[in-house]
Amino acid sequence: MALTESNSFENGTLAPQFSLQDVVTGKLVNLQELKGGKGTVIMFICNHCPFVVHVNTQLVKLANHYLSKGIGFVAISSNDANSYPQDRPELMKQVATNLKYPFPYLYDETQEVAKAYAAACTPDFYVFDANLKATYHGQLDNSRPGNGAAVTGEELRKAIDAVLNNVPPLENQKPSIGCNIKWK
């Protein structure tokens, strides 16, 4: 497991558009369909990364809390499923169903979406305002597998609340840390 920090993604950058397959429904969906009325959280995750497994329950809680407030959530896996078969779409569907993801779980087979977002690790979190302008790219919170810190979602919550309250983005945005995206 290679420990990787998220890359830089400048605030104010427009969210790159995409159309990807939702592994649960099998339908092709796009960002315009999935964005929230007040903001959108895009998460690059995967099935097997211990950093994602560590925060999965909190991701479900966060989404369940903020979806009714107009924040859309989208999870994307861009890992090479040929080299990492545990990240195959049929197993993604199983994880999404078992964990009751309240957000679509999309498969980025070509890895073009991950490249467009400069995604580097799993998990990797992005928050966009109602106009799909980036306001946050950073960590969920300070918890990591084995460090004893509680998984609270504190940093991501602050970023989402800033969008909802129409206040400037957080100044101190710590990068996310996790497993590297498994590139082809």
Give structural notes.
- By secondary structure, the protein is of the alpha+beta class.
- Helix 2 links the parallel strand 4 (39-44) and strand 5 (71-77).
- Helices cover 26% and strands 23% of the residues.
- It has helices at 31-34, 50-66, 89-98, 112-116, 154-164; strands at residues 3-5, 19-22, 28-30, 39-44, 71-77, 105-107, 121-122, 124-129, 134-138, 177-180.
- The two termini are 16 Å apart.
Name of the CATH superfamily: Glutaredoxin
Main sheet strand line-up = 3-2-6-5-4-8-9
The biggest beta sheet reads: 7 strands, mixed
Domain count: 1
**Helix and strand sequence:** EEEHEHEHEHEEEHE
Average of per-residue pLDDT values: 96
Low-confidence regions = none
Q: Which fold name is given in CATH as the topology?
A: Glutaredoxin
Beta-strand share of residues: 15-25%
CA-based shape: globular
CATH architecture: 3-Layer(aba) Sandwich
Cα-atom radius of gyration = 15 Å
How many helices? 5
CATH class: Alpha Beta
| Span of the ends, CA to CA | 16 Å
Assign a percent range to the helix content.
25-40%
Structural class: alpha+beta
Total strand segments: 10
